[in-house]
Amino acid sequence: MRSSIFRLRLSGLLAVALAAIGGNAAAAVTDQEAAKLGKELTPVGAERAANKDGSIPEWKGGTPKAKYNFNDPRPDLFASDKPLFAIDASNVDKYKDKLSAGQIELLKTRKGYRMDVYPTRRSCGYPDAIGERTKQNATQAKLTTDGNAYLAQAVGGAFPFPIPKTGAEAVWNHRLRWQGVGRHEYYQTNFINPDGSYYGLAQDQLTVNPFSSTKANSPADASDSQMKIFNVAVSPPARTGEVILAHYFLSGKTADAWMYFPGQRRVRRLPAFDYDNPIPGYENLETADQYPMFAGNLDRYDWKLIGKQEMYIPYNNFKFVAKRKIPEVYLGLYPNRDLMRYELHRVWKVEATVKQGMRHMFAKRTFYLDEDTWMLMEADQYDAQGKLWRIMEATIYPAVELGACVSQEFMSWDLNVNRYMAENSTQEAKPTDWLAGDEGRIDMKKFEPDELRRAGER
User: Fold this and answer.
1) What is the pLDDT of residue 7?
2) What is the CA radius of gyration of the chain?
């Protein structure tokens, strides 16, 4: 009898332990499942076929790679498309099963907010090498089994989990989304007030993604580096010359960050640049792990893969990112609705809940990842009382020079203070050089702490 009770208790404890590992413990992808990649599934794991009514068409390879001078205006590949219909406060309930909680909140509470829905164009694909390496990862990539969901094994230049079994695996696909190995971008971060006034922080940034290289056959080959950012503030004058250097890692190490303060002529190591720590100078409107959309470690959350659904998300946003004045783009309560394009796409839905014994200002987060790119397109953040707090939305378009889609600009609404910010706004900036890393136009010495002072004094 005692032996039976002991076995029952032991099995109960084992069940609790497995639950604690939760969304991070995954069944392996079989060879039969992996064989679907490039056939029933696209090379990166999306459903190739159209949906039942054809409103989401069959994937046919995406936009082909083509020569493009990044200093030229980027053409709108679908400029002749017309909206099929609009979603607004009067009909939001009709479409609520294809909207996020954040989208519904904006439609119902922001006067004049609407979503113009266009024909779906599955314009996103990837170079063949990315698909081939992604298939290799399908049966070989692994996360740690300690409940922290750090990357244990994968090849770079690929998506690690094209057939995800857990929420953590799906989010790692976003973290390692392929947008080339490095870019040089000029952009502005805008903090918009309800009356339409705004404060803009212009920045010159170099970004490299060492693990996006097809030469990286393990995290060690990339020196455990996921992403490095070298960011110089250009304006306003009060911020000119500030420099932030940040290193993000694959193995779970907390991000390293340094900042140069020109007024003090000093470089300081930032004590914390991860999780819910605020980004310096961002008026407490963005946490370190909200950039871009989500970054950093997954270890404070339990991740649950809810599954797939159809959803209206921003797509092919050429018109939105085209050159124009910032006040034309960002209005008091939301971006100009005439510039935004939404399409119906399949997305993966993932829920993150703070682990027992851990803390984060967002007790719960709901993520929606585009199936064709694994890019996080919509994100809802909740407080400890379960109240919706911050709403995030990204944009996406094909960069033909890469042969892949890119997601650069995103918005974040803070419902508690009734403000929103627009990150990575390029409308008034120089064009982004998406091939800077591939073609050797980035000096890797920039990513050393000793470079900060020199950059700030130029």
Assistant:
1) 43
2) 22
pLDDT value at residue 4: 43
| Residues 253 and 225: beta-carbon distance below 8 Å | no
Q: CB of 347 within 8 A of CB of 377?
A: yes
d(CA 415, CA 260): 32
440: left (phi over 0), alpha (psi -120 to 50) or beta: left
Residue 58 contacts by C-beta under 8 Å, 6 or more apart in sequence?
48, 49, 50, 122
Q: Are the beta carbons of 126 and 43 closer than 8 angstroms?
A: yes
**Cα of 156 vs its chain's centroid, Å:** 18
CA gap 431, 378 in Å, rounded? 25
Helical segments of 240-323, H only: 318-321
Asked whether the beta carbons of 394 and 293 are under 8 A apart, the reply is: yes
> What does residue 266 show for φ and ψ, rounded to 5 degrees?
-135, 145
Helix, coil or strand: residue 26: coil
DSSP letter, residue 430: P
Question: Which helix H or strand E contains 412, and what residues bound it?
Answer: strand 410-414
Strands (E) located in 103-181: 115-117, 142-143, 151-153
- Pair 49, 140: CB distance under 8 Å: no
CA 268 to chain centre: 28
The dihedral region occupied by 349, where left means phi > 0, alpha psi between -120 and 50, and beta the remainder, is: beta
pTM for this model (two decimals): 0.94
For the stretch 378-385, contacts whose Cβ atoms lie closer than 8 Å and that sit 24 or more positions apart, written own/partner, are: 378/100, 378/102, 378/103, 378/311, 378/313, 378/347, 379/102, 379/293, 379/294, 380/100, 380/101, 380/102
The answer to whether 246 and 257 are in contact (CB under 8 A) is yes
Residue 35 vs residues 41, 134, 200, 217, 276: alpha-carbon distances, Å: 9, 12, 49, 21, 40
Asked whether residue 224 carries a pLDDT value surpassing 70, the answer given is yes
Whether the CB-CB separation of 164 and 171 falls below 8 Å is answered with no
Residue 382 identity? Y
Angle at 179 between CA 174 and CA 183, to 5 degrees: 125
> What span, in angstroms and rounded, lies between the C-alpha atoms of 433 and 435?
6
pLDDT band at residue 25 under the 50/70/90 scheme: low
Q: Are 426 and 408 in contact (CB under 8 A)?
A: yes
pLDDT per position as a tens digit, 87-125:
999 999 999 999 999 999 999 999 999 999 999 999 999
DSSP 68: -
Do the Cβ atoms of 168 and 24 come closer than 8 Å? yes
> How many residues are recorded in the chain?
458
